Amino acid sequence: MDTIANPPRSTALITGASSGVGYELTVRLLREGWDVVAWMRSEVPDHDPVVAAARASGRLRSDRVDLADPVGLAAALDRVRSRERSIDLVVNNAALSLAQAQPGPSGRDVHFDVNVLSPYAITTALLPCVAASEHKTILNVASNALLSVKQFSLAELVHPTRFKKLFGPYAASKLALALWTHELARALPPDVELRSVCPGPSDTPMTRGPGMPRWLGMLVPLPLLFPHPRRGADRLHAAGLGAHRGERGVFIHRDRVTPLPWLAQAPAVLAAVRDIHARSFPVRPGQDVRPRDSDPG
Ligand SMILES: NC(=O)c1ccc[n+]([C@@H]2O[C@H](COP(=O)([O-])OP(=O)(O)OC[C@H]3O[C@@H](n4cnc5c(N)ncnc54)[C@H](OP(=O)(O)O)[C@@H]3O)[C@@H](O)[C@H]2O)c1
């Protein structure tokens, strides 16, 4: 009798899968039959039976990674590339919004290293795995806070001299992320899709944390303004796998493609992020992706 081969399962890598929007997206994809590779410093909590079952069966594979540490991140990238044959969907979701600027292991501010540089390192390192997959999609989780940025300087973001909760380095980091996403998307193989998305306000450890301005933090318990993070996860799902398929480099906010401020800065932001990445991460063959326009000749 002929055996019918099982169809290959789709695989997502989600950073920041231990809480909030990333956790809810992890649960949703596991329920839909995906394999999920989950990255964070802690662990995906087991309180939903689907998580426990997926962990036991090997469909949920987690790794502890501190995205502020380029050395640890490079090692995690090596591990995942040796273990996963292909990755259909990468969701660069992990981020932090602190109550003050804070240098990380690199000496740069952690808002830059975690929210801007680590998604670039992950995107470029995993490009061959994504290109070998069916869905070929990378989502960078930005924020509508980027629409509020009035002054923008990447140098100021890397080593801040001023600080404002949410509307300072955090908002600037999300703008830098969306700008390099816009620029890099033009350089990728035509069938690989890269875009940025805002999940919308959600009641999560981040919005309940000390990095929120006091007046805004007081509104977080109001579910009409800050709904359950499932809502944000649904928005990421739609941006990655739904109506926006085929769109590259765009920023999706409230389920619509939304113009980015400071767009003229996008090539310079990508060039600076690429330069810092090259100085911080070991270079590996096939990872140096340049916009076609900037190629000499
Ligand atoms: N919630 C909102 O209202 C809102 C609005 C707009 C945009 N966003 C964006 O949506 C995304 C998810 O936010 P959320 O509200 O769901 O936040 P959250 O609940 O605080 O989750 C953040 C996740 O990032 C991980 N993380 C933080 N620092 C890390 C590090 N150094 N290395 C590795 N992982 C790290 C955390 O895991 P560990 O602590 O285990 O490392 C956690 O899983 C973020 O990109 C955020 O900027 C959120």
Question: Outline of this structure?
Answer:
By secondary structure, the chain is an alpha/beta fold. It has nine helices and eight strands. The chain has helices at 20-31, 49-57, 70-83, 110-131, 154-158, 169-185, 214-217, 229-241, 266-280, and strands at 11-15, 35-40, 60-64, 89-92, 137-141, 193-197, 251-253, 256-257.
Radius of gyration, in Å, reads: 18 Å
Q: Give the CA-based shape.
A: globular
How does CATH name the architecture? 3-Layer(aba) Sandwich
| Biggest β-sheet description | 8 strands, mixed
- What ligand molecules are bound, each kind once? NADP nicotinamide-adenine-dinucleotide phosphate
Portion in strands: 5-15%
Describe the oligomeric state of these chains in a short phrase. single chain
CATH superfamily: NAD(P)-binding Rossmann-like Domain
SS class: alpha/beta
* Level-1 CATH class name: Alpha Beta
**How far is the first residue's CA from the last residue's CA?**
58 Å
- Care to count the β-strands? 8
Specify the helix fraction band.
25-40%
Give the uncertain stretches in residue-range form: 291-297
User: What's the CATH topology name?
Assistant: Rossmann fold
Please list the strands of the largest sheet in the order they lie side by side.
3-2-1-4-5-6-7-8
SSE pattern: EHEHEHEHEHHEHHEEH
